[in-house]
Amino acid sequence: MTAMLDTVLVALILSNFVLLGSSRLSSCIRTAALQGIMAGLLPLATAGAGLSLRIVALGLAVVALKGFVFPHLLNRALRESATSREVQPFVGYTPSLLAGLLALAASFWLDGRLALPTHSASSILVPVSFSLMFTGIFLLVARRTAVNQVLGYIVLENGIYAFSLAVVRDIPFLVELGVLMDMFVAVFVMGIAIYRINSEFDHIDSDRLSTLKG
Amino acid sequence: MAQAWILIPAILILPALLAVAGMLSRSARAALGICAAGTVATGALMAALAALVPHGGAVTVPGGWLRVDSLSALHLVVMAIVFCLGALQAPGYFRHGIADGSFDRRTARRYAGLWFGSLAAMAAVLLSNNLGLMWVGIEATTLLTAFLICVTTTPGSLEAMWKYLLMCSVGVALAFTGTLLVAASAGRTGIHGTEALLWTSLAASARGLDVQLVKAGFVFIVIGYGTKAGLAPMHNWLPDAHSQAPAPVSAVFSGFLLNAALYCILRCLPVAEAATGDAGWARGILVAAGLVSILTAAAFVVVQRDLKRLLAYSSLEHIGIVTLGAGIGGVGAFAAMYHMVLHSIAKSTAFTGAGRLIEIFGGNDMKRIRGSLSAAPLWGTCLLVSLLALVGTAPFGLFFSEFMMLRAAFGAGSYAVGAAFLAGLSIVFIGVLRHAIPMAWAPGEKPANPHAPGIVEWLIVALPLAAILLSGLWMPSFVREAFAAAASVTGVLP
Q1: Which of A110, B133, B318, B483 has the smallest C-beta neighbourhood within 10 Å, fewest atoms?
Q2: Is B235 in the A-facing interface, judged by CB distances under 8 Å?
Q3: Strands, E, within B221-262: which ranges?
Q4: Nearest residue on chain A to B170, judged by CA atoms?
């Protein structure tokens, strides 16, 4: 089980770098979907022998939501707009990759400092979750298009999800469901917002939404 | 009363049913009518529940997930008042929209559904004892209220909505990380599983929590919920959202949405404080956050030209004041509760007046609003008096709460904090009055004859303003006890 878990975790890190380095929005959406599916599989891998129906149901819900529903919503928003790639991000792609490396190093350093109650299944679960969170926040601030910012939010959420698996054993089912539902509605609402922004402004560059100041 | 807990699920279910009723209403006018009547009914339930909570005690639903203590009871009352003021002013505010077709049946149905949805979500925040559930409630309010900002779609409202949605979602996601860290800190105390997220069990065994994790968790919680509460420097969404939303929604945003997020921080304060050995570590963070917010607001109030943005920055200032008071603790915490209640009432009333004056004078620019006292006596008086109350003019209650807080700061030996607080207050005082006086008295073009206000409109202006004035002159003992009980939940009174 540990080998499989570690494979998934390393794949999660790699997907971060793909997201940081690619400019085509449709491939970013696809990568984020893949990352969502892997995040959904994490609880199955960490559970080991204690696999229960609850864990399976939750894992499947996450896979369905992050792997299929979100990409569908975002792809639809993307089709409506004429944008297909992030032309001029605030931070270029090479510096972004370097930032990703730094974030990864910082995650391992932070993990060493914090001395969290680590999960027995894998020692790198916590640092990987940190690196997902950092990458998510980085995408949020370093990209211009609204779609990429939503992806940043999803990556951040993936990180928090992995983190919750690592540090809190049994989060009540109701709370997990609530969190998942909120997340669904959040992406749904953001999708509608992108759609409306696009029809009102003819672009989805959120940095050009800048008339309100002071 | 043993069965008082029945009211708790009732408060959550009633708005959900009303949301459905609102979405099925036959006309825009009917939808707003349902909003008004339903909000008053829910508000009455909330007030009844709050009255049943014994001071220092709590009403708990079997199972322990839902619970109301003195702190949440006080917030419930504020929430009921603010939502009622918002709902009762809506029919008048949207009158023109209904007449010219921009606020049609579809929009009104959506508005009613979202209105009751936000009401239920905010009530869930206050009623839940489970920190996870509380988080779910806060995130749900973000999403539901996002669409209330752009009830009528304009480029400005879309921009504000996007900023609000993204900043608050990310902020609140960080707050969830904080919640997880706090839950993880309970690992050694023997409480785990479902229990580790219950506020009561965390508070009971706070001294056994892992100090490092609680500290990390509390920082995340302050940053996360602080974004939603509009604490500087995470406040950027606040003036945009407040200025672009319709006035009844702005009233709820300023009057209660911010408080609900701050409430979550106040919930975690006693846990963090006890876990770190009552050394004032957590309180120090709140004092700093409060002061930064007050001073930021002071800087921006001075340069404002837009009336609703002015009110939004004033909210930033007042949220800062409440945070500062809670951080000082003791008498400061008492003053913070007092201040929180009065600010919510005064700010909702100010938005009522501002909304109408903006409609009458045709723009948010304060330079256009001139001589409002003679042009529209009720709304002009409403805005002027509530602004006077908000800047802390005697004898309004806010003067006394600010004065108490100042004394608490000096009494605790924090002279620098007191001085900075006083400086911030003075700047805001001058900055706001500089605009308020010409808006009320300066001669200007007389606008077209405004619609004569009805009896409900007289009441929603006169009652809150009278209450704020009265609270400065005389505070009944049950009110004093309610403030003291709520303050003691956030920490022991020295």
Answers
A1: A110
A2: no
A3: none
A4: A153
**Pairwise CB contact (< 8 Å): A167 & B304:** no
CA dist B484 and B64 (Å) reads 24
Put residue B312 in one of left, alpha, beta given phi > 0 → left and psi -120 to 50 → alpha: alpha
Query: Global pTM?
Result: 0.92
Q: What HEC string does B49-90 produce? A: HHHHCCCCCEEECCCCCEEEEHHHHHHHHHHHHHHHHHHHHH
DSSP for chain A, please give it.
-HHHHHHHHHHHHHHHHHHHH--BHHHHHHHHHHHHHHHHHHHHHHHGGG--HHHHHHHHHHHHIIIIIHHHHHHHHHHHSS--B--S-SS-HHHHHHHHHHHHHHHHHHHHHH-----SS-TTHHHHHHHHHHHHHHHHHH--BHHHHHHHHHHHHHHHHHHHHHH-S---HHHHHHHHHHHHHHHHHHHHHHHHHHHHHS--BGGG------
Taking the C-alpha atoms of residue B494 and residue B331, their distance in angstroms, rounded to an integer, is 8
User: How many CB atoms sit inside 10 A of residue B240's CB?
Assistant: 25
Q: Which two tokens stand for residue A59?
A: 């894992």
Candidates B133, B151, B180, B307: best to mutate against A (most CBs of A within 10 A) is: B180
Structure-token pair, residue B483 = 């403030």
- Which residues of B fall within a CB distance of 8 Å from A116? 184, 213
Contacts of A184 in chain B (CB under 8 A): none
Which of B176, B223, B306 best probes binding to A when mutated, by most A CB atoms within 10 angstroms?
A: B176
At A89, which amino acid appears?
P
Chain A residues inside the 8 Å CB shell of B241? none
Q: Which among B136, B161, B303 has the least Cβ separation from residue A175?
A: B136
Closest chain A C-alpha to B146 CA, distance in angstroms: 8
- Placement of tokens 């030209």 in the chain: B305
Q: Tell me the torsion sign for CA atoms B322, B324, B326, B330.
A: negative
Hey, are the CB atoms on B130 and A210 less than 8 Å from each other? no
